[in-house]
Design brief:
Layout lengths: L2 E5 L4 H12 L5 E4 L7 H6 L7 E4 L2 E4 L1 H11 L9 H25 L4 H18 L16 H19 L9 H11 L2 H4 L6 H11 L3 H4 L4
Parallel strand pairs: 1-2
Antiparallel strand pairs: 1-3, 3-4
Helix pairs in contact: 1-3, 1-6, 4-5, 4-6, 6-7
Protein name: glutathione transferase
Organism: Solemya velesiana gill symbiont
Pfam families: GST_C_2, GST_N_2
Length: 219
């Protein structure tokens, strides 16, 4: 099987797929594009104009959750619960994690202190809603790493980076989520799921967007 992942270097949704591929020990190639100036071939095969795409022997899959479920079906170890109800619950919290990523992007793209504080409050409320759904650890549902964990690791990786810019963000993450985040970020599949220059690329991208968070003296 020939797998090629089409990626934008700082995209958290692509990172979800990379983590899953790493967990399963699958061989794959990565094709990096600039999503703001995408090549014509990408426009032709991406229905939403978004990454990730996964080319499987020439066939194209899109949307990270669908890509990860496909990978989970074809290659062990199984990262989704076998019980249908538990599996459906996990799917719901993966979607919730996607919303948290969109909220995080709004926080980073805030243009003023007031807007930043508003988005910070929103993100804090979303984190608080998640606390009671997370196990005592080390992962979302206990000892087993699942697709939910693959979905949240990119969020926490970026949150750690943002805390270096604004220490006040640390107060948003309850203790249980801090523990979950630490366990995820220590996992080899997560550590190797981004490029060596990820942090600088991430900062440069949002500085170019005139992010208040990355343009203040504290940053």
């Amino acid at each position: 099987m020939n797998l090629e992942l089409v990626s934008f270097v700082i995209c958290p949704f692509v990172q979800r797929a990379v983590i899953t591929l790493r967990e399963k020990g699958m061989s794959f190639e990565v094709a990096y594009i600039d999503v703001e100036n995408p090549p014509e071939w990408f426009k032709e095969i991406s229905p939403f104009g978004k990454v990730p795409l996964l080319k499987v022997d020439g066939e194209v899959l899109f949307e990270s959750a669908i890509i990860n479920e496909y990978l989970d079906e074809i290659q062990p170890p199984q990262l989704h619960p076998s019980d249908p109800l538990a599996r459906a619950r996990h799917r719901g919290w993966i979607e919730y994690g996607s919303n948290l990523l969109f909220e995080q992007a709004k926080l980073i793209l805030a243009k003023s202190e007031d807007e930043y504080q508003q988005q910070k409050e929103s993100q804090g409320g979303s984190f608080a809603r998640l606390v009671d759904e997370v196990s005592d650890g080390p992962y979302f549902s206990g000892s087993d790493f699942t697709l939910v964990d693959a979905a949240y690791a990119p969020l926490f990786m970026r949150f750690e980076l943002l805390k270096q810019k604004r220490e006040d963000l640390a107060e948003l993450l309850p203790t249980r989520l801090q523990n979950w985040s630490r366990n995820l970020l220590e996992r080899p599949s997560v550590k190797t799921s981004v490029t060596d220059d990820f942090e600088q690329q991430y900062i440069d991208f949002f500085k170019a967007k005139e992010s208040y968070l990355f343009s203040t003296e504290e940053a």
